[in-house]
Amino acid sequence: MKSKIAGIVLIIGSLYYLLAEAISAIFFNDTLLNTYLFHTISELGIPNANSPLSIVMNSAFILVGLTLIFANLYKFRDFIIKNRTIFSILTLISGIGVIIVGLIHGGNPLTSGYHTLGAVMVILGGNILLVLISRSMDDFGTYQKATLILGAFGIIVFWVMFFSMGSVIMPVYERLSVYTLIVWSIMTGVLMLKV
User: Fold this and answer.
1) What is the pTM for the complete model shown?
2) Contact 13, 64 (CB under 8 A)
3) What DSSP state is assigned to residue 111?
4) 133-179, pLDDT tens digit by residue?
5) At a CB cut-off of 8 Å and minimum separation 6, what does 98 contact?
6) Measured distance CA(82)–CA(28) in Å, rounded
7) What CA–CA distance (Å, rounded) separates 57 from 40?
8) Phi, psi of 148 (to 5 degrees)
9) Which of 19, 5, 106 is nearest to 60 (CA)?
10) What number of CA atoms fall less than 13 Å from residue 8's CA on the CB side?
11) Helix or strand or coil: residue 30?
């Protein structure tokens, strides 16, 4: 039963995130395509005239952080055979990081450093977590290989983003490095429903 609860929580949190981003992007002060291509996820969470539904985006950040922490520590940790302490630490770093992103907005010179720290915690920490998970279970089957691919891809795209901050399509790299965690959460949630 614990697996099913954790799975449902992961799926709901991830689907809410995707829906909240889409809704926030629809109401953002640009076309939908331009918003996804040329505006960062963080911009959707800045409470100003450009993003009238910033509260929706920020609620998604916070919910994803809470669901990741809950599901991983409530049940998914049971599937981790090696590196359990590091797994727990990285889960907390990633979850707290995305909560920080939701609570402390970008664009403010006084607080943008904290926002950036939260973003690095969730994007880099979260993708490192996926790589760790893939190598810390008792099997290295399809699920573990998919988790490794997602984590490795997320880390690579994060570094491309890091060195492309001036690029007009930097937001695309940002989204790709975040979506690896969302895809993993949905994939893991479905898996846990079947256990």
Assistant:
1) 0.95
2) yes
3) T
4) 999 999 899 999 999 999 999 999 999 998 888 899 999 999 999 99
5) 61, 62, 64, 65, 68, 118, 121, 122, 126
6) 44
7) 12
8) -65, -45
9) 19
10) 5
11) coil
- Residues comprising the chain, all counted: 195
Residue 39's Cβ-side half-sphere holds a number of Cα atoms within 13 Å equal to 24
| Cα distance between residue 161 and residue 159, in whole Å | 5
Residue with tokens 């990741």: 68
**Centroid of chain to Cα 191:** 18
- Mean pLDDT of all residues in 4-10: 96
**8 A C-beta contact, residue 193 and residue 7:** yes
Nearest to 63 by CA among 20, 29, 5, 24: 20
**How is residue 25 written in tokens?**
């992007």
Find where tokens 């920020």 sit.
58
Angular region, 93: left φ>0, alpha ψ -120 to 50, beta rest: alpha
Q: Using the predicted structure, report yes or no on whether residue 108 has a pLDDT greater than 90.
A: no
Q: Which two tokens stand for residue 67?
A: 């669901």
User: What is the distance between the terminal CA atoms of the chain, rounded to a whole angstrom?
Assistant: 9
If we measure between CA atoms, which residue out of 91, 76, 92 comes closest to residue 3?
Answer: 76
Nearest to 123 by CA among 161, 149, 77, 86: 161
Residue pair 56/23 in contact by the 8 Å Cβ criterion? yes
SS3 call for 81: coil
Residue 57: name the closest of 71, 45, 69 by CA: 45
User: What is the Cα–Cα distance from 31 to 14, expressed in whole angstroms?
Assistant: 24
